[in-house]
Input
Amino acid sequence: MPEGFDDILLIGTVFVVVTLAAFWLAMVIWAYRDMRSRSRDPLAQLLVAIIVSLLNVPGLFIYILLRPRATLSETYERSLEEEALLQEIEERPTCPGCGQRVQHDWQACPNCHHRLKKACVNCDYLLELTWNICPHCTTSQVNYTSDGTIATSSRHVKPSEPAPIDAKWVASQQVERH
Ligand SMILES: [Zn+2]
Ligand SMILES: [Zn+2]
Output
């Protein structure tokens, strides 16, 4: 047997051992990181790392079969989506008269004719019935009461004009003075 063969065998063995060790380490680190993205429990993370480091490739397969299905970020995204959906349902307005769903930009309920909103007298921005001023253009408003009648504000009531003076009466007064 040539002397150089032992050296090659040794180098080959070392190479294989180092590669396997690196692979084993990578597997353990991957499993630990993967578990960390799926569970906040540090004990579970450590347990996964230990199982994979002891059982090697079969341990990794067992972990992949048994790991939590969703990552934490996926769970978080899903909860956000559910919350948004729930909020949309809650925020959709209903008619105070008949309880039917109405749209934000409706001025009256098409079902029971209940007045829902009023348009600004100046800019047509839709206002709540109780608002006296337009938040959009700051014009003060005519108030609609809940039964639809108009409670006037001073802006829209003309001051009563003074009674016209009878010209003949004025003339007669002037005649009497003379
Ligand atoms: Zn209605
Ligand atoms: Zn306005």
In short: Confidence is low (pLDDT under 50) at residues 152-161. The longest strand covers residues 117-119.
